[in-house]
Amino acid sequence: MSFSSLGLSASLVKAVAAQNYTAPYPIQQEAIPAILQGKDVLGIAQTGSGKTASFVLPVLEKLQGTRASRNRFVKVLVLVPTRELAVQVGDVFKTFAGSLPQKIKTFAVYGGVSINPQMMQIGSVEVLVATPGRLLDLVSSNAVHLSEVEVLVLDEADKMLNMGFEEEMNRILALLPRNRQNILFTATMDEEVQDITTRLLSDPLRIEMEVEKQNPDLIKQLAYLVEPERKGPFLRYLIRQENMKQVLVFVSSTRTADNLVGKLLKNGLQAMALHSKKSQGARTDALTKFKAGKLRVLVATDLASRGIDIQFLPHVINYDLPRSPKDYIHRIGRTGRAEAEGEAISLVSAEDLHHFKVIQKKAGKKVSLVETDDLDLSGY
Ligand code: AMP
């Protein structure tokens, strides 16, 4: 199957080829024609499935040949739970919109940065990607109007609810016209998500991707038994010994993240931290450098385990184990993506052993545990 057979015009087909997308992913095969036809879509899929392009491409296609938006009235609204996802989805829109014969202005807004530049730029935007809080701020200052939205996309709806955005979401929904197309993506389906899909979608095409089962075979999982006081030197040993060029290290607290980065730097390993106590500027900077391959080690809390797409990330290390098996799956899902192989390593202390067993059971995979007591870590 090719992108052109899905109903996309030549310029978008050329643009996907330029991104090295050779064939549409399964979710794109189903979602693109349905969205082009104006159907509501419910996508149960995670980052890594190709879900972003599955709505970005048909949405842009539909805007071709239509009249530009009135000043400050957006036509397409994409709601996302986090700033990082806003930037990421905004970038995908920008990449593809740039290749179209008719210019489509797309823009991403999110909190944690000054609102004024966003207010100035929002004028003739047709596609707005937004986090809920910042969007409401912009609405209340009359910087943007939602009464002419034709397409609503809710990306990572489950996360939006988990993060406590339900009230904001409802306030936003109340500002939209009744007659519109709705597209909703969620990684998981529980009662709360079910409730919002029922309220929002009318006779949707349901597309379910089993990404969690699709990719783990590409991920080599391994664990090392390491006592807490030896974890730091062992991490540095691993990075050097395996000559890891790009590694995402997960820790459980912002303090550990900062300490670890300090020690890595002291030992000559280039590292930055990504967590909620960093400013938005610092977070974007770390992520951009890491994505561009200009940063060797990114140390993150679970903030980074969902939704962030880093292409072909070869190594993920759980310096601290996550609390839940679900988080484990999300964390290791940062590697072994887009059909590239990856390696997920967990550092497990004797105290963690029981918890690690539970994680493996829930994740449905037994992970080999390697002892490290005999390893000489002096010099690391
Ligand atoms: P997503 O699930 O939207 O976060 O996308 C996951 C990754 O897959 C992104 O890095 C995309 O650039 C990439 N991607 C999306 N669609 C395709 C495709 N058809 N072929 C190759 N790569 C793709």
Verbal overview:
With 380 residues, the protein is α/β, with parallel strands linked by helices. It has 2 domains: 4-210, Rossmann fold, CATH 3.40.50; 215-371, P-loop containing nucleotide triphosphate hydrolases (Rossmann fold, 3-Layer(aba) Sandwich). Helix content is 38%, strand content 17%. The protein has 15 helices and 14 strands. The chain has helices at 10-18, 26-36, 51-63, 83-97, 116-121, 132-140, 157-162, 166-173, 191-200, 211-214, 231-241, 254-266, 280-291, 325-332, 353-363, and strands at residues 41-44, 76-79, 106-109, 127-130, 151-154, 181-186, 205-208, 219-225, 247-250, 271-274, 297-300, 315-318, 342-348, 368-371. It has a 7-stranded parallel sheet, sandwiched between helices. The protein has a 7-stranded parallel sheet with strand order 10-11-9-12-13-8-14, sandwiched between helices. Strand 10 (271-274), helix 13 and strand 11 form a beta-alpha-beta unit. The protein is elongated. The N and C termini lie far apart (51 Å). Bound molecules: adenosine monophosphate.
Largest sheet: 7 strands, parallel
Number of strands: 14
Mean pLDDT across all residues, rounded?
91
Distance between the termini: 51 Å
Helix and strand run: HHEHEHEHEHEHHEHEHEHEHEHEEHEHE
Query: Which runs of at least 5 residues are low in confidence (pLDDT < 50)?
Result: none
| Bound ligand species | adenosine monophosphate
Q: How much of the sequence is in beta strands?
A: 15-25%
Tertiary shape: elongated
Can you list the strand order of the major beta sheet? 3-4-2-5-6-1-7
Please tell me the total number of domains.
2
What is the helix tally? 15
Gyration radius, to the nearest Å? 22 Å
CATH topology of the largest domain: Rossmann fold
